[in-house]
Amino acid sequence: MATPSKKKLPAADFAELTGLSDRQLRNIAQKGFFPPPERGEYDEDKSLRGMIRYQAELLKKKSSTLTEEKEGLTRVRRLREEFELEARKGEFVPRDDIGPELRSISMHQRAVLLHKLERELATKLEGRTTVERLALLKQAGDDVCQIFNRGVEKWTAEAT
Predict the structure, then answer these.
(1) Does residue 6 carry a pLDDT above 90?
(2) Is 19 left (phi over 0), alpha (psi -120 to 50) or beta?
(3) At 40, phi and psi to the nearest 5?
(4) pLDDT at 14 > cutoff 60
(5) On the CB side of 33, how many CA atoms lie within 13 Å of its CA?
(6) CA distance linking residue 33 with residue 90, whole number of Å
């Protein structure tokens, strides 16, 4: 290994050589890549070696970032291919196709629920004890759930 020289490099020359500003060079020196300037001059050997090490680390980071981006792109491509395969197999229903159907089911269920509560249940509850009312409420809830389940089963049977 060569003996380090005691030669000094003026800050302006170092900036011109590297294409960086004096402020950027001082920031790199502050990160520990080479000693900061003394009276506007850098230690030539240590500064040039430090600048080479700094540039090598930048390249390694850039390479690492590029590798991460490539891995991310590969993951996205794989997910897209899996999605397209599921679509070809018919394992899902596109949102645009399912939305109107779900709204229709939901509106039907709402109408059934209101009819049960307003027309049937309200009249059945009159004059009943609390225990009887609770039993009727439970039965009405079970009936509504059963109606909803039939609607969903009908829809899922048609979708498959």
Answers:
(1) no
(2) left
(3) 80, 15
(4) yes
(5) 20
(6) 58
Residue 112 contacts residue 147 (beta carbons within 8 Å):
yes
CB 112 within 8 A of CB 144: yes
> Dihedral sign, CA of 46, 29, 20, 62?
positive
CA atoms within 13 A on the CB side of 113: 9
Of the two residues 152 and 50, the one the predictor is more confident about is 50
Q: Domains of the chain: which residue ranges?
A: 8-63, 93-159
List of residues 6+ apart from 27 with CB closer than 8 A: none
Longest dimension (CA), the chain: 107
Q: Which positions ≥6 away from 44 have C-beta within 8 Å?
A: 5, 7, 8, 9
Place of tokens 């700094």: 54
CA distance 70 to 13: 39
Total Cβ atoms within 10 A of residue 29:
19
pTM of this structure:
0.41
